[in-house]
Specification:
- The structure holds two protein chains of two kinds.
- By secondary structure, chain A is mainly alpha-helical.
- Helices cover 74% and strands 3% of the residues of chain A.
- In chain A, strands 1-2 form a two-stranded antiparallel ribbon.
- In chain A, a hairpin with a 4-residue loop joins strand 1 and strand 2.
- Chain B is mostly helical.
- In chain B, 76% of the residues lie in helices and 1% in strands.
- Chain B is built from 21 helices and two strands.
- Chain B is globular.
- The chains are: A mainly alpha, B mainly alpha.
- At the A-B interface, strand 1, helix 6, helix 7 and helix 8 of A face helix 17, helix 18 and helix 21 of B.
C-alpha cells in the first residue's frame, strides 16, 4: 500500500516515463555546445546517472500486486491512422528499464579513456541509443514501438562503424542490414494485425483481439524473423560475432546487455499474448532451434581464441536458454527466461566490460597470450573470475537461478531440449573454465605485465554495482521474482488460456 | 427575326463569355504569374547589372511565391475553367505546392552550382536559365491542373522542352550535350507514344475531355483490343516520364549529364507532375480502365524496385546512384497505384511531398561538394565530410536515412503509408517484396554515411574552404532538413493536408 501511496504523492500527473526516455535525448542535443573533453564526459555521465536514478525510483515505487500497465501516458500522435503516443510499463519492462539505465552510465565510465577520438559524437550516439532503448521498453503503441526499435539501429550502426575495430565497416553493414530486413518484415506483420484488429496500434487493445489461426501463423512467422534476428537465434546469428568483436567496449555492453534482449522482449510483448495459438503451434520449432543454439553456440565458443568472439558465441548459447524457457509456457520456464535475460545483461555486460578493461592495458584479445592475471592484477582477476563463474551459472550467482528455473520448466515439456540445455551448461563450464585457466592462472605471458595497473576507482565504480546484482540475484532473487510474478502470470493466462 | 433580338442574344453571349473568361483567367492566375515571371527574367537579363545572378534568382523566387499565394487564395474555391479543360482543386493545389517548393529550392541551389566550365556565368544566358526553369514549372503546373488530354499534352511538352535545353546547359561539357540529345530523342519518342494513345482514346470516345471520356467509356467493352492498346500506350508514355522499368534507360545518363540542380528538379518536380497526371487519368477519371492496367503495373512496380535497388549498388558516381535510387522510389510509388482508391492516392501524394524534401536536400549537398571540381561526382567525394563539416554531414545523414526509410524521418512515414494502403487492399505479398527490396536499397545510402564518418577526407575536401555555404544554400538545407524531420515526427499534420487534397469529384 505504501507503494501506491508514494505513487499518488509523487508521480501523479508527472509524465515520468517520457522524462526517463527523453532526458538522454535532450542531453544529446546539448553535447555539441560543450567545450572540453572532460566536460563532455562528466555531462553524459551525469545525465545517464540521473536517468538511472529515475529508473531505480520507478522500480521502488512499482506496484508489485498487479499485472496492469502502470504510469500510463497517452496522447494522440497520428489520429487518422489510430497511432498514439502511448507509454506504460509492467513487471518485465520495469526490470529492463532498470538494466538499460544501469548499463548506460557504466558504458560512459567504460569509454572514459578508451574513446578519445570524436568523443562528442560518441557520447551523442550513446545518449541517443539510451533514449531509444528506453522507448522500446515503454512503448504501448505498436507503431511507436517500431519507431524506437528501428531508430535504434542508427546510433548502434554508427557506434560500430566509427569506433569499432579493423573490420568495423563490414560488421556495421552486416548488423544494419540483417536487423533492417528483419524489422521491415515485422512492420508488415504489424500492419496486418492493425487491419485485422480494428485499425488500432494500441498494444493492449490488440492483445484482446482473437485472430484466426491461419492469420496468426503468418504474422507469427513475420514477427519470428524480426525477433530471431535480434535475439539472435540460429540460423540468424552470424551478424552477432562480427558486431561484438568489432564494436567498442560500450557498444558490446549495449549489444549484449540490452539489444539482444529486445528480441525476447518482443516475444513476450507481442508473439505470446497476441498470437497464442500460433505460439503453441510453433513452440516445438522454437524449442528445437533454442536447443540447437545452446549446443551449437557452446561448441563454437569452445573453439574460439579471440575472447570477444568467445563471449559473443556464448551469448548465442545463453540466449538459447531464454527462448527455450519462454516457449515452454510454464511458470518456471517463463520466469527463468526473464530472469536469465536480466542476468545475461548483467553478466555478459560485465564480461565485455572486463575484456575492454584488459584490452585497454594490453591491446590483445588473444586468450592464450594472457596468463596469470590473478597474480599481476589481483583485484581485476577476482572480479573477472566472479563474472566468469556467474556466466557459468555456479550456485550462489545470478546465472544459477535463471538456468535452473529454465531447465526445471523445460523438463516434462520437452525433455530433449532440456537435455540439450544441460549439455549446453556443461559446454559453458568447459569454455569458461578454459578462459579462467588460460587468462587468470598459470605463468604471466603478456609482455609488459609488470607495468599493468590494477582496477582504479573509476573501474571499480563500474564493476561493483554489477557484482552486487550477481550476488543479490544469486542469494536472494525474491524481490526480482515478485516484481515479475503478476505480469508473467497474466502473460501465461493470455497465452495458455487461449485454447489449443 | 428582328435585329433587336439578334443583337440582344449576341450581347447576352458576350456578357456570359466575359464572365466565364474572367473566371477562367482568375482560376489560372498562378500560371499567368509564372509566365510573367519568365518573361521578366528574360528581359532583365538584357539589362547589365553587377549582381545579375542574385537579381534573377530573387525575381524567380518572388514570382513563385506570388503564384503560391495566388494558389492559396484560390484553394478555397474549387472550380473548373476554360470549358472544363482546367481545374483548380485540392489535388492540383497540393501538387502545385510540391512544384513551387521543388522549383524554389532548385532556383536557390542554382547560384551555388558553378563547375569549372560554368553553368551560369554572370552575363551569359542567365536570363534563359531562370526563364526556362519557370517555363518548366509552368508546364508541370498545367499538367497537374488539366482535365483534358490535349492540355495535359501541352503541359507535358512545355515542361519537357524546357528540361531538354536545361539538361544541355553546360554547353562546353560533352556529357551534358550528350544527355540533352539523348533526352530529346527518347523524350520525343515517349511523347509520340502518349500522343498515339491519346488519339486512340479520342477515336474511341470522340472527346479529349476526361470527364466526357469517362461517360463515353462506360458504354464501351473493356476487352476491346483498341481500348487496351490505347490504355497501354498512354500508360507506357507516362511511365517513361517517371522512369519505370523497362522504360528507364534514359534516367541514369541524363541524371548524370545534366547540371545537378536540374537533376534535382527532374527527380522531384517532373516526377511529381507525371505521377499527378497518371493519378488524374488512371485512378480518378478513367478508373474504369483499372482491370486493363493493374497487372501490368504490379509487374512493372516490382521490376522497377528490383532493378533500381540492385543496380544502384554497383554505382560509383553519386548522381548515377541517385538516378537508380529514384527509379527504385518510382517503383515504390507505383505500389500506391496498385493499392488504388483514396488511400492509395493519398499515399503517393504524401510520398512525393516527403521525397521532395529529402531529394532536394541530398542534391544540395552534392552541389556544395561539387564546387570548383569537374563534373565527375564520385561517391568518394563524401569521404570524411564529418571531419570538416559536421553540420553538413549530419544533415546528409538525415537525408540518407530518410531515403532509406528509417524512422523517425519522413522517408519512413512515406513508405509506411504506402505499405498501409497496400496491405489494406490485401496485397501482403507485394508489401513483403517491397520491404525486402527497401532493405537492399538501404545498403547504398548507409554506405555514403560510412564514407562521411569513417574515411579520411577526400582530396577534394582537404581544403575546407572549398565549401562555401552561401545564404541561399543554407535556406535550402534548412528547409529540406526541417521538412524531412517534421514529416517523420509530426506526420499527422501533413497527412491531414494530403487527405484534404483529393481531386474534385472523388467521393
Amino acid at each position: 500500500m505504501t507503494d501506491s501511496l508514494m505513487t499518488s504523492l509523487f508521480i501523479e500527473n508527472v509524465p515520468i516515463l517520457s522524462i526517463l526516455i527523453f532526458l538522454p535525448a535532450i542531453g544529446a542535443l546539448c553535447v555539441p555546445f560543450l567545450s572540453g573533453k572532460n566536460a563532455v564526459r562528466w555531462f553524459t555521465l551525469t545525465i545517464l546517472f540521473v536517468d538511472f536514478l529515475i529508473a531505480a525510483w520507478l522500480l521502488v515505487i512499482f506496484d508489485n500486486s498487479t499485472a496492469q500497465m502502470q504510469f500510463v501516458e497517452s496522447k494522440p500522435w497520428v489520429p487518422s491512422l489510430g497511432i498514439t503516443y502511448k507509454l506504460g510499463i509492467d513487471g518485465v519492462s520495469v526490470l529492463f528499464l532498470f538494466l538499460t539505465s544501469l548499463l548506460g552510465w557504466i558504458c560512459v565510465l567504460a569509454s572514459w579513456n578508451a574513446i578519445d577520438k570524436r568523443l562528442k559524437e560518441f557520447m551523442i550516439c550513446l545518449l541517443a541509443i539510451q533514449s531509444l532503448m528506453l522507448g522500446v521498453f515503454c512503448a504501448l503503441d505498436l507503431l511507436l514501438f517500431y519507431v524506437f526499435w528501428e531508430a535504434m539501429l542508427v546510433p548502434m550502426y554508427l557506434m560500430i562503424g566509427i569506433w569499432g575495430g579493423e573490420d568495423r565497416i563490414y560488421a556495421a553493414f552486416k548488423f544494419f542490414l540483417y536487423t533492417l530486413a528483419g524489422s521491415l518484415i515485422f512492420l508488415v506483420g504489424i500492419l496486418v494485425l492493425y487491419f485485422e484488429g480494428g485499425r488500432t496500434f494500441d498494444i493492449l487493445v490488440l492483445m484482446d483481439v482473437s485472430y484466426d489461426f491461419e492469420l496468426q501463423r503468418w504474422v507469427f512467422i513475420a514477427f519470428l524473423i524480426a525477433f530471431a534476428v535480434k535475439v539472435p537465434m540460429v540460423p540468424f546469428h552470424t551478424w552477432l560475432p562480427d558486431a561484438h568483436v568489432q564494436a567498442p567496449t560500450a557498444g558490446s555492453i549495449i549489444l549484449a546487455g540490452v539489444l539482444l534482449k529486445m528480441g525476447a522482449y518482443g516475444f513476450i510483448r507481442f508473439s505470446l499474448p497476441m498470437l497464442p495459438d500460433a505460439s503453441h503451434y510453433f513452440a516445438p520449432l522454437i524449442q528445437g532451434l533454442s536447443a540447437v543454439a545452446i549446443v551449437y553456440g557452446g561448441f563454437l565458443a569452445l573453439a574460439q581464441q579471440d575472447i570477444k568472439k568467445l563471449i559473443a558465441y556464448s551469448s548465442i548459447s545463453h540466449m538459447g536458454f531464454i527462448t527455450l524457457g519462454l516457449f515452454t509456457f510454464t511458470t518456471n520456464g517463463t520466469t527463468g527466461a526473464v530472469i536469465q535475460m536480466f542476468n545475461h545483461g548483467i553478466t555478459t555486460g560485465a564480461l565485455f566490460l572486463f575484456i575492454g578493461l584488459v584490452y585497454e592495458r594490453t591491446h590483445s584479445r588473444d586468450i592464450p597470450a594472457y596468463g596469470g592475471l590473478l597474480k599481476t592484477i589481483p583485484f581485476y582477476g577476482i572480479f573477472f573470475a566472479i563474472f566468469l563463474l556467474s556466466s557459468m551459472a555456479v550456485p550462489g550467482t545470478n546465472g544459477f537461478i535463471g538456468e535452473i528455473l529454465v531447465l526445471s520448466g523445460t523438463f516434462g515439456v520437452n525433455n530433449w531440449a532440456a537435455t540439450a540445455g544441460v549439455l549446453g551448461a556443461l559446454l559453458g563450464a568447459a569454455y569458461l573454465l578454459g578462459i579462467y585457466r588460460q587468462m587468470l592462472l598459470g605463468p604471466v605471458r603478456i609482455p609488459g605485465a609488470a607495468k599493468m595497473w590494477d582496477l582504479n576507482v573509476r573501474e571499480l565504480c563500474c564493476a561493483l554495482p554489477l557484482l552486487l546484482f550477481v550476488f543479490w540475484l544469486g542469494f536472494y532473487p525474491k524481490p526480482f521474482l515478485s516484481i515479475l510474478q503478476p505480469t508473467l502470470k497474466h502473460l501465461l493466462e493470455q497465452t495458455v488460456g487461449a485454447g489449443l | 427575326m428582328s435585329d433587336i433580338a439578334e443583337k440582344q442574344t449576341a450581347a447576352d453571349l458576350a456578357t456570359v463569355d466575359l464572365t466565364a473568361i474572367s473566371q477562367s483567367v482568375l482560376a489560372s492566375g498562378p500560371e499567368i504569374i509564372i509566365i510573367i515571371g519568365a518573361c521578366v527574367a528574360l528581359m532583365l537579363s538584357l539589362v547589365p547589372h553587377p549582381r545579375q545572378n542574385q537579381l534573377l534568382a530573387g525575381v524567380s523566387v518572388f514570382m513563385i511565391l506570388l503564384a503560391a499565394c495566388m494558389s492559396y487564395a484560390l484553394s478555397d474555391f474549387p472550380q473548373t475553367a476554360y470549358a472544363g479543360m482546367f481545374v483548380v482543386d485540392g489535388f492540383s493545389t497540393f501538387f502545385k505546392v510540391i512544384l513551387y517548393l521543388g522549383t524554389t529550392l532548385t532556383v536557390l541551389m542554382s547560384g551555388n552550382y558553378r563547375p569549372n566550365n560554368g553553368l551560369i556565368k554572370d552575363g551569359v544566358f542567365q536570363g534563359e536559365y531562370y526563364a526556362l526553369l519557370l517555363f518548366a514549372l509552368l508546364g508541370t503546373m498545367i499538367m497537374v491542373s488539366s482535365t483534358d488530354l490535349l492540355l495535359i499534352y501541352i503541359g507535358l511538352e512545355l515542361q519537357a522542352l524546357s528540361i531538354y535545353v536545361l539538361t544541355g546547359f553546360l554547353k562546353t561539357d560533352l556529357r551534358s550535350n550528350e544527355a540533352s540529345l539523348k533526352y530529346i530523342i527518347l523524350g520525343a519518342f515517349s511523347s509520340g507514344i502518349i500522343l498515339y494513345g491519346m488519339s486512340l482514346f479520342y477515336g474511341l470516345t470522340g472527346t479529349t475531355n476526361l470527364n466526357d471520356m469517362a461517360v463515353a467509356l462506360s458504354t464501351l467493352d473493356l476487352s476491346d483490343p483498341m481500348l487496351i492498346l490505347a490504355t497501354l500506350f498512354m500508360l507506357v508514355g507516362l511511365l517513361f516520364k517517371v522512369g519505370a522499368v523497362p522504360f528507364h534507360m534514359w534516367v541514369p545518363d541524363i541524371y548524370e549529364g545534366a547540371p545537378s540542380p536540374i537533376t534535382a528538379y527532374m527527380s522531384v518536380a517532373s516526377k511529381a507532375a507525371a505521377f499527378a497526371v497518371i493519378m488524374r487519368i488512371f485512378m480518378q477519371d478513367l478508373s474504369v480502365l483499372q482491370p486493363i492496367w493493374i497487372l501490368n503495373i504490379v509487374g512493372i512496380a516490382v521490376l522497377t524496385m528490383t532493378l533500381g535497388s540492385f543496380v544502384a549498388l554497383a554505382q560509383t558516381n553519386i548522381k548515377r546512384m541517385l538516378a537508380y535510387s529514384s527509379i527504385a522510389h518510382a517503383g515504390f510509388l507505383m505500389l500506391g497505384l496498385v493499392a488504388g482508391g483514396r488511400d492509395g492516392m493519398a499515399s503517393i501524394m504524401l510520398y512525393l511531398l516527403i521525397y521532395t524534401f529529402m531529394t532536394i536536400g541530398i542534391f544540395a549537398v552534392i552541389i556544395l561538394l561539387n564546387k570548383g571540381v569537374t563534373l565527375g561526382e564520385p561517391i568518394e567525394d563524401f569521404s570524411g565530410l564529418a571531419k570538416n563539416h559536421p553540420g553538413l554531414a549530419f544533415m546528409s545523414l538525415i537525408f540518407l536515412f530518410s531515403l532509406a526509410g528509417i524512422p523517425p524521418t519522413g522517408g519512413f512515414f512515406a513508405k509506411f503509408y504506402v505499405l498501409t494502403a497496400l496491405i489494406d487492399t490485401g496485397h501482403v505479398i507485394l508489401a513483403v517484396i517491397a520491404v525486402l527490396l527497401s532493405a537492399v536499397a538501404a545498403w547504398f545510402y548507409i554506405r555514403i554515411i560510412m564514407l562521411m564518418y569513417v574515411q579520411p577526407p577526400a582530396p577534394v575536401l582537404t581544403q575546407a574552404a572549398e565549401i562555401q555555404l552561401t545564404p541561399s544554400i543554407r535556406i535550402v538545407l534548412l528547409i529540406a532538413t526541417i521538412g524531412t524531420l517534421l514529416t517523420g515526427v509530426l506526420p499527422a499534420w501533413f497527412l491531414g493536408f494530403v487527405t484534404n487534397s483529393m481531386p474534385l469529384g472523388l467521393g
